[in-house]
Amino acid sequence: MIGERPKGIRSHLPVAYPALMLGIFFIIPFGIMVAISFFHRQPGGFYIPGFEFTNYKNLYTALFGRTLSFSLFVAGLSAAVCVSLAFPFTYFITRMRRRTQVIWLVFLMSVLSLSEVIIGFAWSLLLSRTAGISNLMVWLGLMEQPKAWYPGFAALLFGICYLAFPYTVLVLYPPLSRLDPALPEASQTLGASPLRTFFGVIVGSMRNAIVAAFVMVFVFTLGVYLLPQILGRPQHWTLSVLITDQAIYQTNMPMAASMAIFFMFVSLLLVALTMVIGKGKKIKTQ
Amino acid sequence: MAGLTLEDIHKNFGSVVAAREVNLKLPHGRFVCFLGPSGCGKTTLLRLIAGLESPTQGHILLDGEHITWTPAHKRNFGMVFQSLALFPHLSVGENVTYSLRVRHVKKSTQQKRAAELLDLVQLSGFEDRHISQLSGGQRQRVAIARALAIDPLLFLLDEPLSALDAKLRESMQLELRLLQQRLGVTTILVTHDQREAMTMADMVVVMGPDNRVRQVGTPLDIYRQPSDTFVADFIGSSNLLQGSCMGAREIKIGDQHLEVAEMPAGVSDGTSVTVSVRPEDISVLPGAEKRDNCLHGTVSFIRDVGSNVEIYLNCKGLQIISQSTPKGRPDVKPGDEGTAILPPASCIVLKS
Amino acid sequence: MNKTLRIIFLSLILFLLCGPLIVVSGVSLNAKKRLFFPPEGISLRWYEELLTESSWLIPVQNSLTIAFTSSFIALSIALPLAYFLWRYRVFYARALFTLGISPFILPPVITALGFLSFWVTIGFYGKMFATMISHAIFFVTLPLVTISLGFESIDHEIVEAAETMGADSRTVFKTVVFPLIRPYMISGFAFAFVLSLNEYIVAYMVSGFTVETLPIKIFNSLRYGYTPVMASVAVVFVLLAVIIFGLIGRFGDLPKLLGAMNPENK
């Protein structure tokens, strides 16, 4: 019988190994990192156990504040752009004939297999002055001179959206494929134009899925490390870059740890906020 | 008012033919049923009328005007889908007034209309309920109310009752019929259940497995005078006997002769025909009686469902089913000899 | 929906998605080191170098080993967890599932830093073993999600039917549940494998200076000594993905694996 309560301590056994592994290799590392954020940093790169708030106080720098806001901004923007493009895209895919669908899905999986560094490299080429899209435009006569569009904010945005796009599609695919095709048809027979049907009924009934996708992409893009360095200028470097810099190059582990913990809290807060706002609308109609 | 006309409609999906040479003139203000087995094209026809598909060939006219290429959202019809397709993110009231909102009707008018419609389907006060809180029957009514919100020119239903349990289905059939009579809206309902069609329709369009229209008529006309063996078999149950024509009023079945009241045109001596006789028109007498138009045989099976009795008679390899009321039940049991009497007036001759 | 609008939209997305693929293929086949448009000369030398130079073969070997073992370990953690949460109802189900997906939903730098702190403290910093375990935990989420999806798609009545025919829990798992879950296990493994091959920051933080994985080598190559061999690597990966997922698509039910519950064949 599925869904029953396990009888006795022994029946909890199957879950002991996973729980143990996650406990030892995730919770403990996390705990250690939290502890280190309170440790005292010695000049020269080592740290001794202690308890002080120095590392957290040191977060109040312009650099940290600016980098944090930029990271949040670029993640939010990419998530918005990504979901806006991926939603209609995935919807169209789910309405296709099965064979065509599979071809598109295999194509997306192969795009997924590109690593972040390769994507950064590819876009740096595509947006370069010597072998990129602008060269193609010149060749076609649409532009006079080739231009370098990287490094820059737009290049970074492009790269991040490209990276996150297949994941967004995969997240939206299950709910969209379960959408009753009669729903948009009903909307049309009731007099709504196809455009109105799309925004009113399709987007409307998929609200929760869209919010979930947004949150997922937001958190995903919050963690980009390589793309900002390849496609962006130093002012575009995200918090992940800063934290790694502190940990490895400045060998200031406590500082890096405090940044990471703070970062985590902020992202969790934003996630919670987005979910509340997203679900909030649902509560109202009930 | 001329009503809806379908002219020479063909619909293919790639190499699959869904509807073939359909020509129909549907009267205004009537309850029409598209009836047929799965895959016969009845739902396709409905969707063509709704504008959700376009015909491969042919025209659709409403009151003389061509609407073949009018998009679905401009046709002002109301449709109830098989899955009901209620919008899960909107309340009952918002679902019902959707078509009004899309047409920018004033909020106060919307509210009034919503109350009216919910009252019509006996769901008064349900405006603020959520779809997930409703039972199957209640959702059904919301779908109906929603489709009727704008006083549509046509009311279309695609197997709307197939998801309901038997008792609910029967009561809904009656309700839909009464609703249609009250509103006077031209209604087209698609179903595979011939009992449903018989209960509700003014006019039945029977479609066959060849995706053509086989017969159009009132339920009783179709029942009593089926145009071919498919219709005879699909509507109600029927005994279908193969034989050949033997003159103006006689059919030879096996080595027996049967007198019939009428012979269809174009049937000459020797032509193979099928004779259709309804079980309730056949009476069975115990023993081997000598009567006009009778077949002798042995009782092989008796099915007594309480409200009626079916007697299966094996007449030299031919199976005859007779139906009678409990009171009129002949005194036979399986294994007994019996005589089946087939009145000439009840023997319908169909071209094979 | 307006048909032409849809076609334009899809074509645009297709064009943008293909862009990097085309460029990377172009670089990998370019005769010269620097790519110019229009391209000049085709050559397979970069692929040759990939297969012969040890400076590339070692990272490839490292990455493959780490990817394989970590995906396997991740699967071993995810399977009993997903099974348990599906089979039984326990009050700590939510918490356990959240724990299972946490490593992945946090920004990777945080998880990476956590691992770094851990391995430094324990003393295994710099060992390949550390990278394997770290990747395994980091990617547990993927098989966990895919396998849970698989469990979701199992009709409870199938299990009940088996039980009425005399199968105990163990037999039910072996004969009914496992075969139904197997494709989801494979797809979870495949996802973890591919992601592990391409993962940079955890591998870098945990043992980046001693164990050089492919992404680390490529990023270094990009910064310090650019060579088109990295493009050949990318092309090989993409071709591999196309083959593997193409096979799944051809012989399996790819839409169902990815969560579609609509068995309609349009």
Rg estimate of chain A, integer Å: 24 Å
**CATH homologous superfamily heading of the largest domain in chain B:** P-loop containing nucleotide triphosphate hydrolases
Strand content of chain A: under 5%
Task: Please give the largest β-sheet of chain A.
Answer: 2 strands, antiparallel
Mean pLDDT score of chain B: 89
Number of strands of chain A: 2
Mean pLDDT of chain A: 83
Secondary-structure element order of chain B, N to C: EEEHEEEHHHHEHEHEEHHEEEEEEEEEE
Tell me the strand order in the biggest sheet of chain B: 6-7-8-3-9-10
CATH architecture identity of chain A: Orthogonal Bundle
Secondary-structure-based class of chain A equals mainly alpha
The biggest chain-chain interface is: A-C, 93 and 99 residues
Number of domains of chain B: 2
What's the CATH H-level superfamily name of chain A? MetI-like
Top CATH class of the largest domain in chain B = Alpha Beta
Task: Describe this structure as you would to a colleague.
The complex is a heterotrimer of chains A (286), B (352) and C (266). The radius of gyration of chain A is 24 Å and the shape is globular. Chain A has 286 residues and is mainly alpha-helical. Chain A contains 13 helices and two strands; from the N terminus they run H-E-E-H-H-H-H-H-H-H-H-H-H-H-H. Chain B is 24% helix and 33% strand. In chain B, helix 4 packs across helix 5. The longest helix of chain B is centred in the middle third of the chain and has 18 residues. Chain B starts with a strand and ends with a strand. The mean pLDDT of chain B is 89. Chain C is an all-alpha fold and 266 residues long. In chain C, 77% of the residues lie in helices and 0% in strands. Chain C contains 13 helices and no strands. The two termini of chain C are 18 Å apart. At the A-B interface, helix 8 and helix 9 of A face helix 3 of B.
Give the SSE layout.
The complex is a heterotrimer of chains A (286), B (352) and C (266).
Chain A: H1 16-36, E1 40-41, E2 47-48, H2 54-57, H3 62-94, H4 98-112, H5 116-126, H6 133-140, H7 153-177, H8 182-189, H9 194-205, H10 207-222, H11 226-231, H12 239-249, H13 253-285
Antiparallel strand pairs in A: 1-2
Helix pairs in contact in A: 3-7, 3-10, 5-7, 7-10, 8-9, 10-13, 12-13
Chain B: E1 4-13, E2 16-26, E3 31-35, H1 42-50, E4 57-62, E5 65-66, E6 78-80, H2 92-96, H3 98-102, H4 107-120, H5 136-148, E7 154-158, H6 166-183, E8 186-191, H7 194-200, E9 203-207, E10 213-217, H8 219-224, H9 229-234, E11 239-245, E12 250-253, E13 256-259, E14 272-277, E15 283-286, E16 294-304, E17 309-315, E18 318-324, E19 337-341, E20 348-351
Parallel strand pairs in B: 3-8, 3-9, 6-7, 7-8
Antiparallel strand pairs in B: 1-2, 1-4, 4-5, 9-10, 11-12, 11-14, 12-13, 14-20, 15-19, 16-17, 16-19, 17-18
Helix pairs in contact in B: 4-5
Chain C: H1 3-29, H2 45-52, H3 54-87, H4 93-105, H5 108-122, H6 128-138, H7 141-152, H8 156-164, H9 169-198, H10 201-207, H11 214-224, H12 229-251, H13 254-257
Helix pairs in contact in C: 1-12, 2-12, 3-4, 3-6, 3-7, 3-9, 3-11, 4-7, 5-10, 6-10, 7-9, 8-9
